[in-house]
Amino acid sequence: MQKKGAIEMSMTTIIIVVIGVTLLVLGIRFVVSTMSGITEQQEGIQAMSEQKLAEMFGQSEKALSLPKAKLEIDQGDTGSVTVYVRNPSSETLTLKYKVNLDSSPSGMDRAVDWVTWTKSGRPTASGKGYEDTLSIDVPNTAKVGNYRFTMEIDCTGISNEDLCVDGTSMAFEVLTVTVKGT
Length: 182
Prior knowledge:
Layout: H1 2-56, E1 64-65, E2 70-74, E3 78-86, E4 93-95, E5 97-103, E6 115-116, E7 122-124, E8 129-137, E9 145-153, E10 164-165, E11 168-169, E12 172-180
Parallel strand pairs: 2-12
Antiparallel strand pairs: 1-3, 3-8, 4-7, 5-9, 6-8, 9-12, 10-11
């Protein structure tokens, strides 16, 4: 009888070891597949982040880049946004940009007067750029609502077709300013 008990005990041990190894292999396989999926997602997110950071810090391929397209400002306050200007052509150009008011609440046609920026051009080598601060000083009398401004490369004196075609800028950005009541 002792031999029969020993055989049953060794069979039970073998079955438990086989089940344990099977569960261990399945568990390791699950962890590896989960981690490989996470690694792929992390690489994708990192690539997107690097692209967005490059655009935000002026390393974008665009001639005009505005990392923040919306701004909220209270009546009587000032807000600012950074504008990046880059020369995508193969020659050195004197680049500047201009700001236009596209839409505003009724009677606020002179809202572009609230905006200050560097209006003089800067000589910019091929592939290089500069950053400028666009400041918006909203008066207390401004109407609450959305104001849409367009920034574009000023084509005065530029014949480069990478930037201007028939005097029209090929590079522009839109900034929406929401004026809130105080």
